[in-house]
Amino acid sequence: MPASKKSEKEIKEEKTQILIEMTASFSNEYLDEDYKELCEKLIRKMARKRKVPFLSGRIEIWAAAIIHALGSINFLFDNNFEPYASTDDICNFFRTSKSTTSQKAKIIRDMFKMNYYDDEFSTTYMNESNPFSKMTMINGLIVPSDMLPTLENIVLQNDLPDENEVKNDSIYLIKATLHYRYFHSNEPVFRIFAIQGETKLYTLAKTTLKYFNFDFDHLFGFYNNLNEWTNSQERYELPYYLDVNKDSKFQTNDVKQVKINEVFDEIGKKMLFIYDYGDEWQFIIELLETDSPEPNEKYPYIIRSFGKAPSQYGDEATHKKHHEIMINSLDPSQTSLDAFK
User: Fold this and answer.
1) To 10 degrees, the CA torsion angle through 274, 276, 280, 283?
2) 3 assigned to some structural domain
3) What is the pTM of this model?
4) 26-74, pLDDT tens digit by residue?
């Protein structure tokens, strides 16, 4: 019986792992752990592109190009630096030509706007030796921070953007994970998708449900308390609740007015998305990272779909079991979301 044809998702995951192993092998022989981690970080970011570049072409060329791209911005080819490796070392290891490797490396650098002292893809040594790390700008002039008066320096330092701060025009990579207790599954069920940061929370809810094949016809809200959402101090709900909860000790905000980038203001922030307060479906919404918008790209779009989503309503037996679980969840030990922290 002929083997079933692999899906594009399976091919992508397989090639991602192969690339990680190939670059790790080179790093073990010529480089260090720093480069190994940067290679994996770059590979996984490439894999999240809507059009994954390494799905076509020889995998060895992409492995060589990834190391070449990172090496180019970290002085890998300068023998005054450690670690050091030449283009010949890379090409001989992967048996690729210099011209093809450098061409692919340029594609990667251009794709992610990689340059010297890159915030995301510089080695630890390069970050520590960055000559611009202790510079600041005053009235358009770049000056060393240690030249500033102490008080003025503190004020300026407070005004510098946090490394986790996101830009208003960014594309947000969101991971939505369905909470286990509502159905039986041996694997996590989540979706990762790209959406514009200027999008309202109302559309974020609609998009999340769309990728789980749920109807968009019940009340919902976003809450910052992952364990006891009713005690959330930060909450975003439909306009209906603005009047209903006007005397509540917790102020609620309108999901139709608040934007994603106003709530998810740092990488890694999580909110609990409650949908349908009767059945109370729970999703953990997490900001994985931000990226620059791609020209002519339409957002939102799905990047990864893992695990089979349950039926929103299910059969009678499932629905009965669902409510038994909800009753049992009065026991705090059954409702912990520590795994998502």
Assistant:
1) -30
2) no
3) 0.55
4) 999 999 999 999 999 999 999 998 889 999 999 999 999 999 999 988 8
Are 176 and 278 part of one and the same domain?
Answer: yes
Select from 69, 104, 127 the last residue of a domain: 127
What is the residue-wise DSSP string for 217-237?
-S-EEEES-SS-GGG-SSEEE
Q: How far apart are CA 190 and CA 103, in angstroms?
A: 36
Per-residue pLDDT tens over the stretch 272-317: 999 987 778 999 999 999 888 888 888 999 999 988 888 877 654 4
Range of the domain at 118: 8-127
Per-residue b or e along 178-201, where b marks 16 or more CB atoms closer than 10 Å to that residue's CB: bbebbbeeeeebbbbbbbbbebbb
Bond into 293 cis (ω within 30):
no
> Residue 285 forms beta bridges with which residues?
176, 271
Same domain, 207 and 221: yes
